[in-house]
Design a protein that fits this description.
about 15% helix, 12 strands, alpha+beta, about 210 residues, twelve-stranded antiparallel barrel
Length: about 210
């Protein structure tokens, strides 16, 4: 059996063995590598904003009683506009023209004038662009096609010479403020009788040879 002094000596030796030797620096584990953050994804491109043309202001079309006397032709009858907008050809009521620039027939809009003077014909979508100025001048595809003189004579453009010439077909009878309304009726009538462009010819294959009897 160990004596008390032996037990104390044994414990002292064990403590000395467990004690650190000198001031040795404690080694630490290397820090993990720092990874750079991934760059943020580029935002999708912004679609360019398409500028919309400003809406045309509504037109205020003076409705004044007037008459287009078709003196030089038997193909058309006199075209008259009453103060209430009633439109008659000869003695037949054919429509109503209102101050908002709309010409209607049986409740359907057949022509409409906007604030810029552009005339649209929903029932004739293939006609060229038509504009009507406040003085009653009619422009077709940007060119003056018809105008009225101070004494009511109608001048149209000669297709061969390109000059405006009196056509002797109609005479405007009415106040100056009614010229534009009368021109709406006249332009609608002109476009209604303008023939549509002929469709392009279709290509046909070779004619097959007749079969032997």
């Amino acid at each position: 059996m160990l004596t008390l002094s032996q037990i104390v000596a044994t414990l002292a030796l064990a403590g000395a063995a467990a004690a650190p030797l000198g001031c040795k620096k404690q080694e630490t584990a290397p820090a993990p590598p720092v990874t750079a953050p991934k760059p943020a994804a580029a935002p999708p491109p912004i679609a360019p904003q398409v500028a919309r043309p400003p809406a045309s202001a509504p037109v205020v079309l003076p409705i004044a009683a007037n008459n287009l006397s078709m003196a030089g032709t038997s193909s058309f009858r006199d075209l008259s506009l009453a103060a209430d907008g009633t439109v008659t050809v000869g003695d037949k009521v054919v429509g109503v023209l209102t101050a908002d620039g709309k010409l209607t027939k049986d409740g359907q809009v057949v022509a409409a004038l906007d604030g810029d003077g552009n005339l649209t014909l929903p029932t004739y979508p293939d006609v060229p662009p038509v504009r009507i100025d406040p003085d009653g001048t009619i422009l077709v595809d940007g060119d003056v096609a018809m105008t009225m003189s101070d004494d009511g004579k109608i001048y149209t453009r000669n297709k061969k010479t390109g000059e405006l010439e009196e056509n002797y077909l109609a005479i405007y009878e009415g106040p100056p403020e009614g010229r534009r309304a009368s021109a709406v009726l006249l332009a609608t009538m002109m476009m209604a009788v303008t023939p549509s462009p002929a469709p392009p010819p279709t290509e046909r294959g070779p004619t097959p040879a007749p079969s032997a009897p």
